[in-house]
Task: structure prediction
Amino acid sequence: MNTRALRRIGLVAGVATTSALVLAGCAGGGGGAATADPNEKVTLTVATFNDFGYSDALFAEYTKEHPNVTIVHNKAATSNDARANYFQKLGKTGLADIEAIEVDWLPEVMKYSDLLAPVPADLKSRWLDWKTKAATDPKGNLIGYGTDIGPEGVCYRSDLFAAAGLPTDRESVAKLLTGDWKTYFDTGAKYTAATGKAFFDSAGGTYQGMINQVEAAYENPSDGKITIDPQVETIYNQVLDASKTQSAHLSQWSDDWMAGLSNGSFATMLCPGWMLGVISGNAKDVKGWDIANVFPGGGGNWGGSYLTVPANGKNVAAAQQLADWLTSPDTQLKAFAAAGTFPSQVDAMKSDTLLSSKNEFFNNAPVGQILTDRANAVTVSPFKGQFYFQINDAMQKALTRVEEGTQDKAASWAQWQTEVAAIK
Result:
């Protein structure tokens, strides 16, 4: 979830179905998209990262209806790896027919919107207005097919809470954690005092949830210039002060962090919908994970992605048809069932299939209703300009330096300020 600014010269030079009709109706594109020859044999490559909920079985549904299509799914280990590959090759050759992008590097992508095939105009009403607006360029072209958004709750280990004498049912945990971030960290202090173990996974992951509640953390929305909100330093200090005793100091996506999801290294973590699949996939034998319908400070959205179709690809029309299908309400509901990727499609969010959805791994938690409530609790849509990804990546590294003990809090903050000042 990080990026580095690139200049154009570098790019140019170098769950269940809701309706079978939805699938059939969405497969053809339209509204400006070319129509692919249904008889021509074509191999489409799809590049994603983390877990979009796109299983082999899901792709097989599409190829059954389109026997001329073969799909190859390439998944990067992290969004950082995906981002580096994307900007290295955009406008050149070597990208997949469909490339996933993350919302935090969308502002950079928008600078090169002319290198991407526009989404057909008749699909624009499919998504939440703010999801569409963020990916629409000054010419009115929508360049991303919205996949998910990331409304956040708090995931916790009920067995570890029980060992600390804390309530374990999700309603009581929600009541326990209702309030501001001080409430969350005060609860963490009680947990660590009772158990001697870490309350949350990392300073970086917790900071991300906190900073997503700041309307303009790093840049001025009116002119896009770097302007650091005073709340950034406050949050930095607050999370690191708690981290001394409450964090497991496990950098998210590291091997130790993945192992921590199953071995009890920490009792809570902030949970956007897409994180549910990450937890269940790495802690298959754990019985204690649950999710509470609460988020410190009220509400927050972390992440969300889009699919893009490079305009110079070899199979643009066929890729547009597949991207259309992958982001249809019906398919997104299946992705949600598989990986907890909460849909950005208006019809999907109204679906009884979503609202009644439960997650067996999370003690049969009513995740559809919980995440819908969490989405409705979001009151701030943070401004993320072209420098956001780079500044936030530097901040994540600053937090990691402190957690790893290579710098103290003041020195790491000073280094971060120097790095931000050097950004052009």
